[in-house]
Amino acid sequence: MAIKGLTSYYETNKKAYQALSEEQCETIINASFEILEKTGMDIQHPRAQKLLLDAGAKMEDGKVKIPRELVIDCIDSAAKELVMYDRAGNEKFRAGDTRTYFGLGPTNPFFNDFKTGERRNAQRSDVADAALVADACPNIDFIMGLAQISDQNVKLSDVYETYEMLTHTTKPVISWGIDAEGLKEQVEMGAAVAGGMDKLVEKPFLALFPGCPVTPLIIDTKIYEKLEYCAKSGLPLIWMSGAQLGSVTPVTIAGASAVGLAELFAGLVLAQLLNRGCAIACGFVVLTVDMGTTHSAYGSPEHCLGEAMMADLFHYLDLPTMQTGGVTDSKLVDEQAAIETAMQVLTNILSGGHLVHDVGFIDGAMSGALEQIVMTDEIIGYARRMERGVQIDDETLALDVIDEVGPGGEFLTHEHTFENFRDECWFPTLLTRELYVNWSEHKMDMRTRTRNKTAKILEEHKVPELSADVMQRLNDILAAAEARVGD
């Protein structure tokens, strides 16, 4: 059941685990096309309406009906990879095909205080600490703020956040915006660090997240203004939707996915009409609405299935995705957090999701916790070893070594073991393999080990400082932003 005009890359990008068959991908994609053509989108900004109508869309009963031919054309024009660099200009990842990268998430209103363990309002220092801890974790590939700052002028919480990220990590940064003006100021900061806007666009270490459509099927005026600025900036763009089962989408995962994908296609079309060929990573999050509490649940099997479905759909389209993982509904970094996080991380890696954000989220994406970053880093390392699989060749089969050692021999002291054990075996930094007699001397549990490792990072990890000139420029941009919004 191929889709006319659309090339399938399902087999090209096939991974170890698929939630959807190729035919099921086509069914959902066609359903999303039907939603856009028949039901339409509530596109509220006049410029966005004109952009779509000039490109062949129609306005009926106040809804913009977007033809599938236009969507397919924009799918074809979008960049197949989203490439990001570090602060020094070194390429760090290419989000595309089946490669998976992990990073923090944004905008938690609360934070679990590392010193007291108490839940409190998120502060500016939490962003700095989260960026520093993530910078030290080898399996965390990009940084988001993890906390929506409340102890500074909240109208600039996004700008303060980017300031702290740029000064506390060298890894790629994804920033979000309260409004287009704040996004512009964040990009000015990125350009100051890069040595100019042209250099930032050439080797971007900053990607922009304008926000999400209002599910179901609305792109409001403010979101469009941010999307418009982001697409025109020349920097990589993130576009996401939230599919809450049974509340703002159908309770069925298939129906929710069709709605979410339609919203993603609408944003993708707008972005390509504004800047044809721009890189945009799309994603929708499938969240179970617990009918007992009415709260959205991240730590559900439905969420994991949704992540795998997203990967399948965008592997079919050969476009980069923004996924979700490293989140727990637990209020603490505990056994529940470990179970839910491990299932999400493993699902994303085995299904080949691309940019997996929200590492560090607890309490159903209401709070951030530094220990959750550190524990998830360990889980990602474990899962990446599984993803790597087993290499079969003359060296690994080691028939000559087996013959040399012979029956009753030992391999511990053989040179082959010394040459291969570091690559073949994954070694944890948190999980314990101590003998009981040694462990019994301290009886340190996983929570304690995670906390101790986090404390050590906070105390010892250092990030290269920006030059005095760059810091002055960042401070000037921040001062100008403060003057713009007033008290």
Provide a compact summary of the structure.
The protein has helices at residues 22-39, 46-54, 68-77, 124-136, 157-168, 180-194, 197-202, 221-233, 253-274, 301-317, 335-351, 370-388, 394-397, 399-405, 415-424, 436-439, 446-460, 468-485, and strands at 42-43, 58-60, 63-65, 82-85, 91-95, 101-104, 110-112, 119-121, 173-176, 206-209, 218-219, 237-245, 280-289, 296-297, 322-324, 355-359, 361-362, 367-368. With 487 residues, it is of the alpha/beta class.
> What would you call the structural class?
alpha/beta
Helix content: 40-55%
Q: Provide mean pLDDT, rounded.
A: 96
Q: How many strands appear in the DSSP assignment?
A: 18
Note the total helix count.
Answer: 18
Give the biggest sheet.
Answer: 4 strands, mixed
Low-pLDDT regions:
none
Oligomer: single chain
Large-scale geometry: globular
Rg over alpha carbons? 23 Å
Q: What is the CA-CA span between the terminal residues? A: 59 Å
* Widest sheet: strand ordering: 8-7-18-17
SS strand fraction? 5-15%
Characterization of the model:
With 487 residues, the protein is of the alpha/beta class. It has helices at residues 22-39, 46-54, 68-77, 124-136, 157-168, 180-194, 197-202, 221-233, 253-274, 301-317, 335-351, 370-388, 394-397, 399-405, 415-424, 436-439, 446-460, 468-485; strands spanning 42-43, 58-60, 63-65, 82-85, 91-95, 101-104, 110-112, 119-121, 173-176, 206-209, 218-219, 237-245, 280-289, 296-297, 322-324, 355-359, 361-362, 367-368. It has a 4-stranded mixed sheet with strand order 8-7-18-17. The protein has a 3-stranded parallel sheet with strand order 6-16-15. Strands 12-13-14 form a 3-stranded mixed sheet. Helix 9 (253-274) links the parallel strand 12 and strand 13. Helix 6 (180-194) runs antiparallel to helix 18 (468-485). The longest helix is centred in the middle third of the chain and has 22 residues, at 253-274. The mean pLDDT is 96.
